[in-house]
Amino acid sequence: MRYELYYWPTIQGRGEFVRLALEEAGADYVDVARMPARKGMGMPALLACLDGGAGGQPAFAPPLLKAGEALIGQTANILLFLGPRLGLAPRAEAGRLWAHQLQLTIADLLGEVHDTHHPVSVNLYYADQKKEARRRAGEFTGQRLAKFLDYFELVLANNPRRGGFLVGARLSYVDLSMFQMIAGLRYAFPNAMARLERDYPGLVGLHERVARRPNIAAYLASKRRLPFNDEDIFRRYPELDH
Amino acid sequence: MRYELYYWPTIQGRGEFVRLALEEAGADYVDVARMPARKGMGMPALLACLDGGAGGQPAFAPPLLKAGEALIGQTANILLFLGPRLGLAPRAEAGRLWAHQLQLTIADLLGEVHDTHHPVSVNLYYADQKKEARRRAGEFTGQRLAKFLDYFELVLANNPRRGGFLVGARLSYVDLSMFQMIAGLRYAFPNAMARLERDYPGLVGLHERVARRPNIAAYLASKRRLPFNDEDIFRRYPELDH
Question: Are residues B107 and B164 in the same domain?
């Protein structure tokens, strides 16, 4: 099965959570919008895919995953689909639902990260909402971030299975997503993270172990891993990092 | 199977999307936090449930659903679980994923509704973020809301099966959730909705058909349906409605 990922070609964004799962599993996939338009890919293919194609199922936003006949939108939904197929989720329904619950909570945290620099509207530039951003980011680094990290550290500590994973005894896509969150938070909020990290040894250790996995390490060192940048969800604006 | 719903007892909130599914299906359920604490229910039971109990699986926030041994958090995840069991989702995986994709997009819209009155932080009162709220709500009623409604109207129009449902040929939990969105938007933004609604005959018709379903009509007329109120996600603040 060759998977096709459709996502913005210049940012990690939400697509990165899917890329990490595909890379860890060594799956055969194409990052379609990053391939040439003259080969029928690139941005035109992404935009056509959003329209839903023959199936008549339009998507509100990327990422999208094509897998044979299936066309799936919403990041967590894509991971719900891929998890068992890539060996990155529990087989039993209870475990799959628990992994998905955690992934949706990671998505909530990611949404709050996004809104630190876009508290008024995605349709306005950051420069046009800097004042509101400063206030929202202060609440985020001062309150909300620790509330989420407390929660995920507790999930790790409560996991009755050894291994230091969030779900069960084996690596899941949730661990890969948590790696991405820690990496992104460190990029965007180096000061806040330097202050907070000592309270989250479990999550910091998880980030390190994921980064050292051979397929992930190779991916991170490759050109396939786009660099963090300030058009992305995680942005390094020093005025928002306290 | 008697389901137990754990949600804040005085608001519709995110729990309402679960209540509507249980009510439409005529399921046996208890809305635990609205029952007396002296019977082992009420708020103490909700708070204990958030901690995760014996399974060691804490939840970040309600709603939670208990179904036998299963304890499931995140609204869309609960509906993913309940859908096939209540006859409110397609049986095949492709249909279930498509329904879930739409439900997650409804959750995105609901999050944007929430942030119209809480653009800075959930930890601050509305009165302490009124200025930012006015600006964010203006972007919401002026831009974002129509973008979402355009999308869902298109999904309805694109559905190749007759019946006027969002997914396939039968009512699903996605239709019930869209009913709740339209009802809530009308409560919170009567002026904006009066201006916009004519462009969405499909969604307006869907809302009407859901409201007339016998089990839903009986529920809406009962005391089990909490009234909209301004501690909830949908709030009627005239200064935010343009």
Answer: yes
